[in-house]
Design goal:
The chain is mostly beta strands. It is built from three helices and 44 strands. The protein is globular. It starts with 19 loop residues before the first helix and ends with a strand.
Length: 568
């Protein structure tokens, strides 16, 4: 089961909140337990009646504790009670004789597509209570949803922007850490002046308390958290930082950041500090999720997308690995171009819908050659897809010498490396924990070499120079087959990602200044699983692209009560 993007509202409208859920629920049942002392002053008949009522209440709260904790485990994919299983809660006495279940507080965990059903039982004395809750999960994705608007000349405030219109460009960004030189636009092909960006999503607050948020921007920016304006850095000015405080409980908080520039300042950075973040720090991608308003296609070729002898279809990483019933064609791929044949399929198959640039003529821009086919519809997009430049996060670290691992190398800390040559036969790089790596030169992965991710681990790889090249039977993140856990960001122009022979890659790659080239012809075919946004996408014979249709999808999340019964 995949980690779902963010907690959601559960029984009675109470949101699932970090570790405070466990503490809060136990406190609640202790309060109920304290009420039993009044029984001593009543007559025997009244005592018996009150005891039964209190036993029923204790059973109710025990059951509630079990299901709430279990639901939180499923949503956050964390084993909070340490019983070794996500979605179950260890049974036993939790407070003053109040028991969660007989063996497990939450049992009968079932998954069907996007639905998860949890059954929980609480018991006290003669009373037991059981409920079943079904979660319909949403396609929340890591990062924030970004909408780009082209503004009238010389705005002076965020209030001058029409934020409700159709955006010129949309995207999903890992976080807000963008500061580009004046020679480079904020996104590929974008303007230097008179534009605005709105970032929306959810930030996961690690612990309750007072949190400080910081907007660094030039020109203006304003931040709202849970609908409250927290930071006002509005108006025309050079790059500067403004901050504001807000008291928040642990758990999800909605954020809405509006930014504009008119004079090519091209800087917007969102940071925080608080009870568990000692100093001003850029909010990391791991704390951010979003549910896009407009779908963002998983595969984008800004100027061209060419499939020659290849197949591009899709699946949902939320439902597991590609294959079997987890194969779909109900998604879109896109080029931002409007030139003739900017998207072309020859002796290959595009098993999806196809979108060309805004205002383009679909039948002119999207074409097929001999033996090529497109199974879905053709249309012009209502918004382009922005290819944002990302700021390398480890610039302050000294550059380590390049490495050429032999055998197994485990990465247990953030690293900035001159280059990586993972080319010695059977060499393996293992990622332990949530890591960031910056490579200033090339990164080559050769025959029978692998990059693997341990449990509860991920990698954000920033390529500031060179090529990310997979050849022969190179395997990247195949052991998890979860592309959401491996992100690659190319941070300057002229960089590329290449795959050849029988290489396999599971991840998301963003290359605003370069492309993805997959050279086929081998068995098994080279295969890209995940999402790619770049200037160009090109493939040759037998190459395969399995697009993650869950990336950037719009959806809704609901929690419904499937069954409720008082068993005694």
């Amino acid at each position: 089961m995949r980690r779902l993007g963010r907690p959601m509202t559960l029984l009675g409208g109470s949101p699932v909140r970090g570790g405070t859920v466990l503490v809060g629920i136990v406190v609640a049942v202790m309060v109920v337990a304290a009420g039993i002392v009044v029984v001593a002053i009543a007559g025997r008949r009244e005592q018996d009646s009150m005891i039964r009522r209190f036993e029923a209440m204790r059973a109710f709260y025990a059951q509630e504790a079990a299901v709430q904790i279990a639901v939180r485990e499923v949503l956050r994919q964390q084993d909070d009670d340490g019983d070794g299983v996500i979605g179950t809660v260890a049974g036993g006495v939790i407070s003053s004789g109040i028991t969660i279940g007989a063996s497990k507080g939450a049992t009968g965990l079932t998954v069907s597509g996007g639905d998860t059903t949890l059954e929980a039982q609480g018991a006290n004395g003669i009373a037991t209570r059981t409920s079943a809750v079904t979660l319909t999960t949403a396609n929340y994705v890591p990062g924030l949803y970004a909408e780009c608007f082209l503004t009238a000349s010389n705005p002076t405030s965020v209030n001058d922007i029409t934020w409700t219109g159709t955006p010129a460009m949309v995207s999903v960004v890992p976080n807000v850490n963008m500061s580009v030189p004046n020679a480079t636009a904020m996104w590929q092909g974008g303007p230097h002046t008179n534009y605005a960006i709105r970032f929306r999503g959810t930030v996961d607050i690690p612990s309750a308390g007072t949190w400080t948020f910081y907007n660094e921007s030039g020109d203006g920016s304003v931040l709202w958290v849970n609908g409250t304006q927290v930071v006002d850095n509005d108006g025309n000015h050079s790059t500067q930082v403004r901050s504001g405080d807000i008291v928040l409980p642990a758990g999800p908080a909605a954020i809405d950041l509006k930014y504009y520039t008119r004079n090519a300042s091209d800087t917007i950075i969102l940071s925080w500090s608080g009870p568990t973040v000692a100093s001003q720090t850029v909010i990391p991608p791991s704390a951010l999720t979003c549910d896009p308003v407009l779908a963002v296609p998983p595969v984008v070729g800004h100027t061209s997308l060419s499939l020659a002898g290849a197949t591009l279809d899709g699946y949902s990483s939320k439902s597991g690995a590609y294959g079997g019933s987890n194969i779909t064609s109900g998604f879109s791929v896109q080029t931002n171009a409007t030139a003739a044949s900017a998207m072309n399929v020859t002796v290959g198959t595009l098993a999806s819908n196809a979108l060309c640039g805004v205002g383009g003529t679909p039948n002119t821009v999207i074409t097929t050659g001999s033996g090529g086919s497109i199974s879905g519809s053709k249309a012009a997009a209502t918004s382009g897809v922005a290819l944002f430049w990302q700021t390398p996060p480890l610039e302050s670290l000294l550059v380590e010498a390049g490495i050429s691992p032999v055998g197994t190398l485990t990465i247990t800390s953030d690293r900035r490396l001159a280059f990586v040559n993972l080319t010695t036969a059977n060499a393996k790089m293992v990622i332990s924990g949530h890591r960031v790596m910056q490579v200033d030169g090339g990164f080559t992965i050769g025959s029978n070499c692998t990059i693997e991710l341990n449990a509860d681990s991920s990698l954000r790889l920033y390529m500031t120079g060179g090529t990310l090249a997979l050849s022969s039977t190179a395997q990247v993140n195949a052991n998890t087959a979860d592309p959401t856990r491996f992100h690659v960001f190319f941070t300057s122009s002229g960089l590329s990602m290449t795959m050849a022979n029988s290489a396999a890659f599971h991840g998301y790659a963003f290359n605003p200044g370069g492309g993805l080239a997959i050279t086929g012809g081998s068995t098994p075919a080279p295969t890209f699983f995940g999402a790619f946004h770049g200037t160009t996408v090109s493939t040759s014979s037998t190459a395969l692209i399995r697009a993650d249709a869950a990336f950037g999808s719009t959806s809704a999340a609901t929690t419904v009560l499937a069954a409720w019964r008082q068993t005694r």
